[in-house]
C-alpha cells in the first residue's frame, strides 16, 4: 500500500478541500511508473484539483465522496488509483467475476470511461470491458467469459447480464458510482441499489456527483464508510471562463436565429441542446437544409448512429451536434467553442451541466441561451441557481442575416406590446 501524507490535501474537518495544483505533478502522487509513462504519452503533466486531492487517499484504499462539476478530470481521479491498486495484486482474470466495477448512467459516458482505463492502463497486464444496452450482448458476454479486471457498465444492461448469470459481482474490490445525481434524474436509483446488494461488504467505494440532493446524500451515507469528502467547487457553480448570454426571442424564430448565428465562422464546433428528441431531429434537418453540417444525438438513435454522430462531431465532419440532455454529462469532446441552449432546461442544474461541455481543460468558451416567453420562469430559476444575471444580447442582426423578422430582444418591450396585441384582437372580433 502506498504511504502518503493524508494531511497534505484534506481539510481537517472533512469538509471541502482547498488544495491547488500549482506545485504538484503526477509523479508526486505516488502512482506507479507504468501509469506515469501513459500520462506523459498523453501530454498530461499536472493533475487537476480533484485528481491531486483524491489520488493519494484512494491509493490508501479510502472511501471517497467526490462533488465536482463536469470537466474537472474526475475520471482520471478514480481510474488511475484503481489501476494502481489492481496492479499491486495481479491475478489471472476470472471469468464473469470482475475485480472492479464502475457504474455510469449513459452509453456514451460508459464508452468514454472504458477508453480512459484502456489508455491509462495500456502498460499494465489488466483487462477492462464495457457493457451497455442498445446493442447486442454477444460480444459483451464473450469479453466477460474471457475474464476482466475492470467492468464499466450502465445499470440496466448489467442487471440483465447478472440475471442471466453472465456476471458475478462477488469478487469486486473497488466500486465506483459515477454521476450519481444523473442516475437519480434518469430513474436508475432502484437499479443501483439492487446492484449494490450483490457487492461484497468488504470493498472500497467511491461516489461522484455534481450535486448532492437528499436522495443521493442518503445513498452515500449507506454506501460509504468514513469517506474522504472532496469538493473542488460548490455544487452547480458555473465555469468562470464561460461567457454566458441570453437572447429573448419568440419560439417560432428560434431556428432562424440559430441559422443566423451559425453564419459566424467563429462558432467552429457547436453543441446545441433541445428539450425533446423530435426537436433535435427537426433542428438538425433545418440546419442541413441550409448547408450547415449537423447531426442529432438522443436516446431514440441506435448505438451505431450515436457513435457515428459523435465521431463526426469530434473529427469536424459536422459542425453542430443537436442533442438532448443525454449529452450534457460526462461526454468529453475537445474544442467545443459554443454551447447553445435552443430550449432552456426546466431544471437549473441541467443548465450548468450543459454549458460545462465548453471551456474544458482551462480553455475559454461561450454559452448562448434562447429564451421565449414561456421559458422566462426557467431563466429565473437558472439565474437564481448560478447567482448572476445572464448578459442580454440583441438577436436582430442574426435574424436579419437569416432572413427572419419579428423577434423582440427586449423582454420589457414584449410585455408592453402584449396588451396592445390582445386589445387589437378583441377589436377585430367585435367588428367582424
What does this structure look like?
Helix 2 (49-58) packs parallel to helix 3, helix 3 (74-88) crosses helix 4 (107-120) and helix 6 (155-163) packs across helix 8. The chain folds into two domains: 6-231, P-loop containing nucleotide triphosphate hydrolases (Rossmann fold); 242-417, Rossmann fold (3-Layer(aba) Sandwich). Helix 13 (348-355) links the parallel strand 12 (338-341) and strand 13. It is of the alpha/beta class and 432 residues long. The chain starts with 32 loop residues before the first helix and ends with a helix. Strands 3-4-2-5-6-1-7 form a seven-stranded parallel sheet, with helices on both faces. Strands 10-11-9-12-13-8-14 form a seven-stranded parallel sheet. Helices cover 40% and strands 14% of the residues. It contains 16 helices and 14 strands. The longest helix is centred in the last third of the chain and has 21 residues, at 411-431.
> Which second-level CATH architecture of the largest domain applies?
3-Layer(aba) Sandwich
**What integer value in Å does the Rg equal?**
24 Å
- Secondary-structure element string: HHEHEHEHEHEHHEHEEHEHEHEEHEHEHH
Tally of individual helices? 16
**How many domain modules?**
2
Q: What percent strand? A: 5-15%
Largest sheet: 7 strands, parallel
Order of strands, widest sheet: 3-4-2-5-6-1-7
* Strands, count: 14
> Considering DSSP H and I runs of 4 or more, what fraction of the residues is helical?
25-40%
Mean pLDDT: 83
How far is it from the N-terminal to the C-terminal residue, by CA?
86 Å
Molecular shape = globular
| Name of the CATH class of the largest domain | Alpha Beta
CATH fold title of the largest domain: Rossmann fold
Pairing-aware structural class of the strands and helices?
alpha/beta
* Unreliable runs: 1-22, 399-432
CATH superfamily of the largest domain: P-loop containing nucleotide triphosphate hydrolases
